[in-house]
Amino acid sequence: MRALMISNPNSTSQSDALFRQVIPLLRDVEGVHLRMQFTHYAGHAEEIVRGLRRADYDAIVVFGGDGTVNEVVNGLLGPADNDQRPAPEELPVLGVIPTGSANVFVRALGIPNTPVEAAHVLARLLERDTRRTIRLGTWNERWFAVNAGFGLDADVLARVDRAREMGFAATPLRYLTVSAQAYLRARVIPPEISVHAVNRDGKEFTAHKVPLMFTSNTNPWTFLGPLPVVTNPRNSFDKGLGLFGVSDLGGIHGLVGMLHLMGVDRKHVLSKITQARALQFDDAQVVDLETPTPKRFQADGESEGKFTKVHLESVADAIEVFAPSQPRPPHERSVREILRDLVRIK
């Protein structure tokens, strides 16, 4: 098996010591011939893999975070609006060793979040050639693997990126702090997002002037350290896109909606308070988002600029990945578990 490893040296947890632990685990797999290439700038991973087919490499291993996964997916598949995109069996199979800050993609596949443990699992998957085909999302002409959204989540990522540029680490506590600040700002001047979605059964969902709307291709939507952010518990890589939002950020309803995003079990009594204002739609095939003024948009944890309109779709059988055949069950957490993990983060 010919495998190309794409490594992002700027990823959160990469180090020379980590390479010395991980690389031998993959090279010891019988029949695997591993070549490594480092990225040097944003978008480089996409350039490296652009146009590669299984005739070139049997596998692409991402040694990085969700942003590097996003680049590799876009490089392999090309423009999302191209009707002549390659079939999954024509592309190298994707494997991931997580070294990012959230690592949502690999964790949602049921692979450990720590690089060495993930490398052990990936080595066994390579030995047994255990793979599955998953759905991906598209926004305009681009692909995303994990999540996408207008407004609050994109603002949080932009502010965390600015903090990182100033030398601060992107810790779970920093994400929580920036998220709280963004939430308070959004309550004063809430975004106005119009949403129209259609699922595979033809059922439609429409909402106007929504201050918060997230789109996810996975479950959980993201992680804050050990905290899973669960928006659509039934969502998975085998279903369409999940939408979650709230119609009002004010009062107890908005606060409880944010607690739900942090993983509070929907069956808890507090969730009953917010059900009337929660907006949720599962298995969407097509989604259109629109705002009256340009707002930040993010995909897979990367800021993509400002837009007024974004068209999203769910694409079945988009790419093959090395992963356990049975995905993990959805995360549902109690208030006690959330408070315990918040103390752990602190």
From TrEMBL:
One of this protein's Pfam families, by short name? DAGK_cat
Required co-factor?
Answer: Mg(2+)
Gene Ontology molecular-function annotations: kinase activity
In this chain the DAGKc domain maps to 1-140
Q: Which PROSITE patterns match?
A: DAGK
Q: Which UniProt keywords apply?
A: Kinase, Transferase
- Cross-referenced SMART domains, in alphabetical order? DAGKc
Q: From which domain of life does this come?
A: Bacteria
State the InterPro entries in the record.
ATP-NAD_kinase_N (IPR017438), Diacylglycerol_kinase_cat_dom (IPR001206), Lipid_Phosphate_FormReg (IPR050187), NAD/diacylglycerol_kinase_sf (IPR016064)
User: PANTHER family, from UniProt?
Assistant: SPHINGOSINE KINASE, SPHINGOSINE KINASE RELATED PROTEIN
The entry assigns this protein to a family as follows: Belongs to the diacylglycerol/lipid kinase family.
Q: What is this protein called in UniProt?
A: Diacylglycerol kinase catalytic domain protein
Protein's organism: Corynebacterium simulans
